[in-house]
Every structure is written in C-alpha cells, then in structure tokens.
C-alpha cells in the first residue's frame, strides 16, 4: 500500500481519519484558499480539496494524498467560512437561526504514483433551531468554534443548536467524509479493514 498523507493541519480531520485505523502522516499544504470570481460553492470546495492534495505531490512520491475543504451555504446561497472571531461567529449563527445550512465538503484522493485523482463533494444539511442572541453568545463563549465553518462543533455542544440533520455521511459535517473516502481508498486497492 502506498503511504497515506492527509493534506491538512486540522485536528478534526486527523481524529476522523484515525477511525479507519490506517497508518498516515499529515502535513499542512500552502495554497491560496480564496474564492474565484463567480465560483460556485461546490466548485470551490472540489478545487481546493484537489489543490491541497496536489500541493504536496512533488515532495511525497508514492503516496495517496487526501485533500479536503469545506464551506457552509445558507439557504439564500451565502457562503460561510470559518468565522475566526466572536462577532463573525455571532453573525453566522444569527443567519442560521431557524433556517437550514448545507455543508459542502470537497474530498480528493491523489495517487502520486499513477497521477490519478478522485474528486467529489459530499453535502450535509443542518436544520437549526430558532436561536436567541443570548443562546448564541452562551454557546460561543463555551465552545469557541472560531476555526469551524458555520461557527459550531457538531461533535460537541453544537449539536444542541440543531433541530435535525440530513445527509448520507455525518462525518462530512466534521470535515472529512469517511464513507466516500473509503470508496476512494478501495478504488486504489487499499484494504479496509
């Protein structure tokens, strides 16, 4: 089996990949993550996932490199990224209150030996409860999800903000869709388990 490399510095993605019990290393790729003019959200996450994988290809021959990227899209089409601070996180959760947000997670698996690259986008929708400003502030002060697209951690207290969820792979909500990744790895001949 070629060595497995996660092109990410995200501790959330590393924790998810550990579930597959495969040996892997990780490294943060250095790419420009800016959205291109008029780029649709689905195209953005697919492009960035592939660019992250390809950014490490030269320095990692004979590897399977996993790239992933995620954005949250409000029902009106507005794209939400990582808030990075309290005011933006409050704004994001106010916009999501009582509404639905679709998380689009781009996933790429690059085989640096063959040059083949599988790329996909996995959607997952969260339906939020109506949230008061006080509830939003209490949540943000407790969990501080400023490095998470959409301003919450579904694997933590953020689940209390949801009315319901829908999608084929709950791990895509955290940032690495394991069901689809297993499909990709099986296509490359990786045995799991």
From TrEMBL:
Give, as one word, the top-level EC class: hydrolase
Its EC number is: 3.6.1.-
Residues the UniProt record annotates as site (Important for substrate specificity): 12, 70, 155
Q: Decide whether keyword Cytoplasm is in the record.
A: yes
Q: Mind telling me which Gene3D superfamilies this protein's record contains?
A: 3.90.950.10
Provide the alphabetized UniProt keywords.
Cytoplasm, Hydrolase, Nucleotide metabolism
Tell me the function of this protein: Nucleoside triphosphate pyrophosphatase that hydrolyzes 7-methyl-GTP (m(7)GTP). May have a dual role in cell division arrest and in preventing the incorporation of modified nucleotides into cellular nucleic acids.
- PANTHER family found in the cross-reference section: 7-METHYL-GTP PYROPHOSPHATASE (PTHR43213:SF10), BIFUNCTIONAL DTTP/UTP PYROPHOSPHATASE/METHYLTRANSFERASE PROTEIN-RELATED (PTHR43213)
- Family under the similarity heading: Belongs to the Maf family. YceF subfamily.
Q: What is this protein called?
A: 7-methyl-GTP pyrophosphatase
